[in-house]
Amino acid sequence: MSERLTLSLDAMGGDNSPRIVVEGVNLVLKELPNVDYLLFGDEAQITPLLEEFPRVRERCQVRHTTDVVDNDMKPAVALRSARQSSMRLAINAVHDGEADGVVSAGNTGALMAIAKFVLKTLPGIKRPAIAGYFPTRNGDTVMLDLGANIECDADNLVQFAVMGEVFSRNVLGIVEPSIGILNVGAEGLKGNEAVKKAAAILENTDLPVKFYGFIEGNDIPIGTVDVVVTDGFTGNVALKTAEGTIKMVGFYLRQALMSSLLSRIGAILASFALKKLKFQFNPSRYNGAMFLGLNGICVKSHGGTDAYGFSHAIKVAVEMISDGLNDAIKEDFAHLSEHTEKELRAASG
Amino acid sequence: MSERLTLSLDAMGGDNSPRIVVEGVNLVLKELPNVDYLLFGDEAQITPLLEEFPRVRERCQVRHTTDVVDNDMKPAVALRSARQSSMRLAINAVHDGEADGVVSAGNTGALMAIAKFVLKTLPGIKRPAIAGYFPTRNGDTVMLDLGANIECDADNLVQFAVMGEVFSRNVLGIVEPSIGILNVGAEGLKGNEAVKKAAAILENTDLPVKFYGFIEGNDIPIGTVDVVVTDGFTGNVALKTAEGTIKMVGFYLRQALMSSLLSRIGAILASFALKKLKFQFNPSRYNGAMFLGLNGICVKSHGGTDAYGFSHAIKVAVEMISDGLNDAIKEDFAHLSEHTEKELRAASG
Description:
11-stranded mixed β-sheet; alpha/beta; about 350 residues; about 50% helix; 14 helices; homodimer
């Protein structure tokens, strides 16, 4: 029933590439029967893997290049010098219409810089953002920005709110997603100028956005809102703090369950439930950060992920493409940008 | 053996005051036999509680006032208008030498503003910070700032590093505490100007500070460093995100253990271990945020805490007093301020 899609993959990005890339494709072959892949990278390394997974080979085309973007390469350097890199060529394929989206587990800063340069931002959007899923008591929440924009003004935050809203509605199917701005207190008088001004704009706007107001760090895992809006510095720290905290609790839980014979027996009896819980919080299940606001679908996989995590990033990209996310953002921004600009002018004036 | 100390308590701060305050004192009567208390607040509410806990009454003096600082009062307003409030009078007692330290569960912003105005900052310190404990795999880490300074420059962050180092060494007894600056990546090229400049100062300084470098959010719960330095916005969000994440994992753990008969039996067998784990992550065990850099000891208890949590905040204040923390900070700053200023001038120039 569904049309065929093509994803371009940076086969050389990430700690265990190109293996995780090829194995990641293998894991979703059945689930995504309508997707073909362009693999950018070193043929000498990729070909033996395709021989190992012949069914993957049928759906892949290899585009040879030996140049790669290092993890410690500055974005500006990567942009200037790595024009034949697997990352750059994979992004070019989206720009040239050969692929519908790109997935890379490489250097985040370089990926964003190159994607922004090659694909450009959607009309009306000043800065693209990195969005990701956050596990909560209420299912998953979307949070943005996760690190693309270290310093943000009110204008950026309002645009993140609108992009997050469109994402939540179109990709997650939430009818009227609620938007919260991350702050150090729920009262209006707290926080920096950017969050206060962004909240004032969203409160008084006639944009069709359901603005909840300010939320605090503990509201994220509660799932108080569907979309958490914040600057890239705070968002990155919050996400990684939560990831580390989940691991720490798991560490102490294991330690507690091993502490006596009785608790060990208890752990064996509860092992099925505990395994399910462990799977629920497996970071690979949340792998795949979405670049929003670009003229093309771009998903960043965690560099240290495994094949399962990479396969999840592939699925995220396919969802974004299938739900016509960028067209929806473009359309909404066309309607909204007038409002937004008016509000921003009013707030600045 | 030990000298007698006096703590002044804002008996009206917090959601369940003055009950939690009186009951909190009751919980530490035996453990802290050398501490007396000044209770500032409404006699009509406090006296019946002291009748309920006659042993607390023997160690307390009540100073009557009916004025209180509301939770939603702006700091500047509280500073100007609430001069007869329980919070203000409790802080005054420290300034007047009647008490060795103050504990309040009231409005954080007002408490910091009044404490700063009444007690003043220690010589060489531009802005006091709020520090707190963070549970990690490696025991507890100290993190600052947790919300007193929403925007920080490199100068502030360097001072936080020095105060945190002195705290960790003197109060926690860590011989050579390592200091990390919270950032969005471990590489030097990431982050905002303030963290980059602060790191450059701490790397090149001849201050006797063991600077680890940048850490990321996930390093906090790992316990990579002994002291986490960050601005008040990020620190507040990180701490609350971690608290919320611990609760969320607990929620799903309970759900998982209740999901089948077998896992329920397992949970019963492991109940002792699980209760110990629950206690380990009880937020009351971490209650008591420390104001560092003031000319007087001031501890902020969480507003929603219970008596156990308030008693923990009392213990934190007594530790800070007993270890002569402020004298240690003053002494270190006298030695260090020359260096710091030289470094800062060099970095700015």
